[in-house]
Amino acid sequence: MTAVAAVSPSAVAISRAAAQRRIVTVLVVAQVLSGAGLAAGITVGALLAQDMLGSTGLAGLPSALFTAGSALTAVTVGRLSQARGRRPGLAAGYLAGALGAIGVVVAAVIASPVLLFLALFVYGAGSATNLQARYAGADLAPSTRRARAVSTVLVATTLGGVLGPNLSAPTGNFARLIGVPYLAGPFLLAAVAYTAAAAVLATSLRPDPLLLARALESTSDHAVASPEPEPEPGAGAGAGTADGGAGTDAETAAVGVGARVGIDAGPETEAGPGPRPGVGLGPGVGLGTGVVAANVGAGTRSVHAAGPFTGVCLGAGLMAGTQLSMVATMTMTPVFMHAHGHGTAASGLVIAVHVAAMYLPSPITGRLVDRRGYRAIAFVAAVSLLAAGLLAATPAHFAPTSQVALLAVALALLGFGWNLGLLAGTTVITNSVPIATRAATQGKVDVVISVTGAAGGLSSGLVVETAGYPTLTLAGAVISFTLLTFLAATPPTRRTVPSRAT
Questions:
Q1: Sign of the CA dihedral 396, 401, 405, 408?
Q2: Which helix (H) or strand (E) holds 491?
């Protein structure tokens, strides 16, 4: 059998780290652009529908439509990414979002509610793709840093997400100058922003993170299945390295530093499998293969970790719970403000604060998830959502100037709770699902999230029309608090796995 050349662990770590840095940088640029496209439509979508349809009860329909479109896109992007990689999947999703934004503008010009609804459905592709991009940031990250990798991608959305709503008035004025209705102006910005994000990903997301991670996993499995040559005297038996893992992307061979270098998943956490048993490939280089730390002796040991099915259910529940409250309240806040005499500049400011709170805390919350685990973070998310609902129910009793400030604080708490739930749920799922089926599973999970959001958006207008905005915010907060508290109290699966003898 041909001997396997020893590869320096430092070379492995540097190669993988370099690929991860490039991938995250490209994702950050794309997220800044897409954040502007996403937030611009959120700010005026309900107002545009109310203006065209003349009904508050149907004002929540745009949110329901583009979250329903997000559900379909999540499946499509997930499957395309599973088959072809993250790059074509994400680029196609953003292009679809841009097409939907253009359709909204055309619908507003010709005053066609039917076209508006179809276009909003397609526009939802941008929202789904914006969320799917967070998974790409974690494909190559070790399990101990996955939440932080996801948080880096999410926080990039903040800049565009804050900029977009504050451009509602300027883009509305520009739209009037070219003969387009005022409220359709932000969708012009969304079309440009989504197109630019797609271009960045299509040209620069190389190596493809999912394809590279899959190639590394395949190399790892092959090495474990093959008999190993006798080690040279003094050679290490392979204690899986902390950041080990390199190989060849399906499209780019430049990243690989060896054909059979190992991957280590990092230490065990309550949200996923732990590090893998080491198999010696040369001096000091380990190969990860499974669920426990390198060579800890014969017998078995218990591991607190969510299995694939349990992990998916927990992660999906965490994200769906936060999505329900967030979408319902966010959708009707501009409508509530408009009914109390506030213009698009004021509602744009509140939505900008909300979007900033959704993404800006990500670096801190990512570290907290990695260090404290998902259960503690899920409980904090539940408290934040409950506080947001209670506070949002009070502005009707205050003066107009105080209303804006109170709503800004309430929606900041709402966005922060959503951020906590999203990062905790994403980390649970990424740690629980094997790389071979990860993209497809992530797409299906995002369908659940989108359907939950669509239900919240569709019901929000009806609730406000029949019972009022305060009832909506309180109901959403109580439902989400109850669900998230239950999930936070659910213990992770306990399982027993074999240890390898030295």
A1: positive
A2: none
From its phi and psi, is residue 286 left (phi > 0), alpha (psi between -120 and 50) or beta? Answer: beta
Residue 369 and residue 270 in contact, taking contact as beta carbons nearer than 8 Å: no
Residues 14-35, mean pLDDT to the nearest whole number: 87
Distance separating alpha carbons of residues 423 and 421, to the nearest angstrom: 6
Place 397 in a pLDDT band, splitting at 50, 70 and 90.
low
Phi, psi (degrees; rounded to nearest 5) at 318:
-60, -45
- Which of 10, 1, 12, 437 is CA-nearest to residue 260? 12
Task: Report DSSP state, residue 243.
Answer: T
Q: Could you tell me the pTM of the whole model?
A: 0.64
Q: In Å, how far are 38, 69, 124, 181, 452 from 99, measured between CA atoms?
A: 13, 13, 10, 18, 24
pLDDT at 462: 86
d(CA 418, CA 476): 13
- pLDDT of 35: 86
Residue 245's region, left for phi above 0, alpha for psi from -120 to 50, else beta, is left
The average confidence (pLDDT) of the chain is 76
- Residue 228, judged by CB atoms within 10 A of its CB (0-12, 13-18, 19+), counts as middle
pLDDT band for position 148 (cuts 50, 70, 90):
confident
Give CA–CA dist 19/224, Å, rounded: 24
H or E element that contains 495: strand 494-498
Task: Report the C-alpha gap between 46 and 257 in whole angstroms.
Answer: 52
pLDDT value at residue 52: 82
Give the burial class of 298: count Cβ atoms within 10 A of its Cβ; 0-12 exposed, 13-18 middle, 19 or more buried.
exposed
Collapsing DSSP to helix, strand or coil, 121 comes out as helix
What torsion, rounded to 10 degrees, do the Cα atoms 39, 43, 44, 47 define?
150
Weakest mean pLDDT among 172-181, 293-302, 337-346, 492-501: 293-302
Q: What local confidence, expressed as pLDDT, does residue 60 receive?
A: 67
What is the rounded CA–CA span in Å between residue 344 and residue 169?
7
Tokens matching residue 191: 């079309």
**Among 51-60, 123-132, 342-351, which is the least confidently predicted range?**
51-60
Between CA 323 and CA 336 the distance in angstroms is: 20
Give the whole-angstrom CA distance, residue 442 versus residue 133: 11
393 three-class SS: coil
